Amino acid sequence: MDGDYLRLFAEETNFYNGIVLGNLFPENLWKPLPHVFQTWLRNYIGGMILYFVTGGLWCFYIYYWKRHIYLPKDSVPSNESILLQIMVTMKAMPWYTVLPTVSEYMVENGWTRCFSSISEIGWPAYLVYLIVYLVIVEFGIYWMHRELHDIKPLYKHLHATHHIYNKQNTLSPFAGLAFHPLDGILQALPHVIALFLVPTHFMTHIILLFLEGIWTTNIHDCIHGKVWPVMGAGYHTIHHTTYRHNYGHYTIWMDWMFGTLRDPEVEPKKAS
Fold it and tell me: Which tens digit of pLDDT belongs to each residue from 9-46?
């Protein structure tokens, strides 16, 4: 890619930085900062806002507004459990947001296969590439998650931090990002690897990375949405109780293909 084209990516990240930082700080505080630090700070603030807004609204809805409608009383996590999840996430968030910062840096320097505008390739090609991107991400996250269980040192030193939440009354939307920092980065890494394998729309990549925060909030609320083939909270709650099933991310397909799927609808029959 030539310099003129790469400047389109830099201009785009400058625009995003301005939206967040420009509305929070005077220009003389953030404009002099190095561009990459501006990008990290924007990602960090954006991640924090997303975490607290989505987690807070969802907890208010299921634990207070619709209290005992979606979950029995003994399945509602204590305030202490939720506070612990928030504390673990706060320690990890500065490191989580390094990953999108690095991915944007690589895009701006022309190291990936990203393109700036959908009009460059047309909507049919964009949709095909998006599907391929999502398949790569689904495959990558499945195997990254599975190996974090199967490789014992990785589980002991990284993933076990997340699996202290192993039953309904310790799971909440705020548990969604309560990981060891390196664990959270490894599970999101397929989003960045995909940039080197398939042409990807830059803005779509950024949006999908941040949608991870919303999705992981949803799958830790213990409410089974029953929308096939979505890997909803019903499946993920089983993952937290058996440790050996339902490693998938957005869908059940990888678990179905590799023999690790356990369906919440048939689980009671197996237990009887």
Answer: 999 999 999 999 999 999 999 999 999 999 999 999 99
Do 176 and 86 touch, CB atoms closer than 8 A? no
CA distance 220 to 170: 10
Find all residues with CB under 8 Å of 236, minimum gap 6, and list them.
219, 220, 246
Reported as a single tens digit per residue, the pLDDT across 173-197 is: 999 999 999 999 999 999 999 999 9
